[in-house]
């Protein structure tokens, strides 16, 4: 498993965490607590207890899900090109049409719930077709690709991308986020002062880009974790931030001005990441237009992610 908080692009073979699949399978038999925080803690305990002695690092929360497929390799990603479909109103319908061999699963809370849902659905798929799916799309989340050879994984990803790129191209959708020019220095300084004067907490770091239209609501768990469920816009004031805080339970991570979008964070890395993820979300919204428009996550699903200890841990890692 890829350890939690590392990037797929930067990982080295030695970084992977090795797990004992027999021990991990205790998870599917265990009587787990019904309350979510206790349940997810119990799940992580079993996952961590499955780590082999000469391995280090905390395996991703999606470990049991990967274990639920028997292929040698399972590569899970959240590319905007795919999320344009998985986060769209008619995503399930188009998935069945464009990818008849893929398994589609509606949005499910990540962690234990998603793992068990995938196990049920994979079993049903196997029952019908006699083999396991090599592609699983999860609504408002991303994609899992499974295969016994590394080349096979790359090939399947290429096919998925080519198919969706073709759809976007024919619909005349741009492949980059429409973004304004970088704002002038005076404007940045002025807006930084406005944010600082309204901010109660320090330290505060900024990342700035030209204006684009961020998603107005939560689109996937990872977007909530890194960029917040929605941006703050309009009049940026102490009252505005207090109101945002009382409504959402956390400070805004993205602030939208007329000529700029600001990523805000406790470190420059967090601020940069918030901005990058907000731009990714904007691209997802752009693509989702082709499939009936963006489908935001509901309040219950959003709150589940916002209250999730495991994700908090990952944020600390970043
Ligand atoms: Zn994921």
Q: Alpha-carbon distance between the termini?
A: 18 Å
Strand content: 5-15%
Look at the structure and give the mean pLDDT: 90
Helix/strand order:
HHHHEHHEHEEHHEHEHEEHHH
The CATH class of the largest domain, by name, is Alpha Beta
Overall geometry: globular
CATH superfamily of the largest domain: Class II aldolase/adducin N-terminal domain
Q: Can you count the beta strands?
A: 8
Based on CA atoms alone, the radius of gyration comes out at 20 Å
Largest sheet: 4 strands, mixed
CATH architecture of the largest domain: 3-Layer(aba) Sandwich
Present as ligands are: zinc ion
The name of the CATH topology of the largest domain is: L-fuculose-1-phosphate Aldolase
Main-sheet strand order equals: 1-4-3-2
Query: Helical residue percent?
Result: 40-55%
SS element count, helices: 14
Low-confidence stretches: none
Content-based structural category: alpha/beta
What is the number of domains? 2
Keywords:
318 residues; alpha/beta; L-fuculose-1-phosphate Aldolase; 2 domains; 4-stranded mixed beta sheet; 48% helix; binds zinc ion
């Amino acid at each position: 498993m890829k350890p939690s908080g590392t990037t797929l692009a930067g990982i080295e073979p030695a970084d992977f965490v090795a797990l004992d699949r027999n021990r991990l399978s205790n998870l599917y038999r265990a009587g787990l607590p019904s309350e979510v925080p206790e349940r997810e803690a119990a799940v992580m305990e079993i996952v961590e207890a499955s780590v082999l002695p000469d391995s280090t690092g905390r395996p991703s929360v999606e470990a049991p899900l990967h274990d639920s497929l028997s292929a040698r390799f399972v590569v899970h990603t959240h590319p905007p090109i795919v999320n344009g479909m998985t986060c769209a109103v008619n995503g399930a319908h188009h998935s069945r049409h464009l990818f008849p061999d893929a398994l589609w699963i509606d949005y499910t809370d990540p962690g234990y719930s998603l793992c068990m849902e995938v196990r049920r659905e994979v079993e049903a798929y196997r029952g019908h077709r006699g083999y396991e799916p090599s592609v699983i799309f999860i609504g408002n989340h991303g994609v899992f690709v499974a295969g016994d050879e590394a080349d096979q994984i790359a090939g399947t990803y290429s096919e998925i991308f080519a198919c969706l790129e073709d759809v976007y191209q024919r619909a005349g959708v741009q492949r980059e986020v429409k973004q304004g020019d970088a704002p002038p220095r005076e404007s940045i300084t002025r807006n930084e002062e406005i944010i600082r004067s309204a901010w109660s907490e320090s330290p505060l770091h900024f990342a700035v880009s030209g204006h684009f239209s961020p998603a107005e609501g939560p689109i996937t768990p990872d977007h909530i974790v890194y960029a917040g469920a929605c941006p703050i816009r309009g009049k940026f004031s102490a009252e505005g931030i207090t109101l945002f805080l009382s409504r959402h339970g956390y400070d805004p991570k993205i602030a939208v001005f007329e000529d700029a979008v600001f990523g805000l964070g406790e470190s420059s890395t967090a601020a940069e990441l918030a901005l990058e993820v907000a731009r990714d979300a904007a691209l997802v919204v752009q693509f989702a237009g082709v499939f009936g428009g963006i489908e935001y996550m509901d309040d219950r699903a959003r709150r589940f992610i916002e209250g999730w200890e495991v994700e908090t841990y990952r944020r600390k890692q970043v």
